[in-house]
Amino acid sequence: MRVENFIEEIKTLGIQTIAGIPDSALQPFCNYLNGETHEFRHFVPANEGAAVGIAIGNYLSTGKPACVYMQNSGIGNIVNPVTSLANEAVYDIPMLFVVGWRGEPGKKDEPQHCFMGKITRDILNVLQIPNAVLSADTAEEEIKKIFKEAGQALSEHKQYAVIVKRDALTSDMGNSYQNAFTLCREEAVSAIIKSVSAEDVIVSTTGKISREVYEQCDKIVGHHRQAFLTVGGMGHAGMIAFGIAQQRKDRQVYCIEGDGAVLMHMGELVFLGKQQPENFIHICLNNDAHESVGGMPTGVAGQNFFEIARACGYPYAACIDSLRELKVELEKIRKMKKAAFLEVKVKLGARTDLGRPKESAVENRNNFMTYHFPEIIR
């Protein structure tokens, strides 16, 4: 289905506001929203739950439903505001969900998507959200029927979800967003890996950053057992790294995240700024975009994360945008023995031949634990 036709169907529902977090399965939809010609009020908040909040506020102030889009992994972030606020037993707020279906049963996908892909429709059913699936083979009459059902649900103050399979939407429009930074992210990752010792712990975030950590570790030190790759659970790498740091104070712990991940659960900065673990180095590779799912800019592009970290209580926070500065800062913070936050401004883009982890997630966990803490592995 052409994304323009999909958009027209959404407009028939009276929707004028759209909010969400981008997804690669929704790439044509996201590219359209990232363009300059659409008629919607469009917002990219910190996480999917926040998008539901926008939709609720939009309805309270206009009487019109809004559209919330996400990857199906984001369903986890909407459960509380949907069940405790929007559900008909509480405030009875209608809204349309557009959900990219990663981990679709029977289709090869990354391990972090498999379980959620399997239970996506089950979760929506438990949430009492009627739903339908849009695929490349969905006939026009069926699409009309889906949106008629959606309209009926919205008119009854219910939510409705359109689950979009990969390649269901087509478009000639690409993503044109670029930032003004010049430092290559993989070069930055390489410099970080070269700066750590063999005993240091590395925890990396979901998406392309972990893929680059994986390959750069193999290239530089000959293995990647030193790194825990947080391939799923966007925004949780910081707390995973803290969980290790507070238990193993004899180890320096490096957390490598992207700006979208830090933004998704930014409350961690306040917590970490209060805790101030002396063996914790928090590195944010900031390209102002959700690059791993298509490159749409975050809703806070242009903000300085290091200033936020400093205000949250990190004893040291700095920002750099060159490889030379990065190497200087890495050497400096290593000697500090205090919690540090380093924001690294990087350009968009990755190698077309960037690989993916060859091991399963469980194998990554076992290799990581065996490398760092063999005494607890039986």
Essential attributes:
elongated, 14 strands, Rossmann fold, six-stranded parallel sheet, 17% strand, alpha/beta
Short description:
By secondary structure, this protein is an alpha/beta fold. Helices cover 42% and strands 17% of the residues.
Structure description:
- By secondary structure, this protein is an alpha/beta fold.
- The chain has two domains: 3-164, Rossmann fold (3-Layer(aba) Sandwich), CATH 3.40.50.970; 185-376, Thiamin diphosphate (ThDP)-binding fold, Pyr/PP domains (Rossmann fold, 3-Layer(aba) Sandwich), CATH 3.40.50.970.
- Helix content is 42%, strand content 17%.
- It has 14 helices and 14 strands.
- The protein has helices spanning 3-11, 27-34, 48-62, 75-86, 111-126, 140-155, 185-195, 208-221, 237-247, 259-264, 267-275, 305-311, 323-336, 361-372; strands at 17-20, 41-43, 66-71, 95-100, 131-134, 159-164, 201-204, 227-229, 253-258, 280-286, 289-290, 296-297, 316-320, 340-345.
- It has a six-stranded parallel β-sheet, with helices on both faces. A six-stranded parallel β-sheet has the order 8-7-9-10-14-13, with helices on both faces. A two-stranded antiparallel sheet has the order 11-12.
- Helix 4 (75-86) links the parallel strand 3 and strand 4.
- Helix 7 runs parallel beside helix 13.
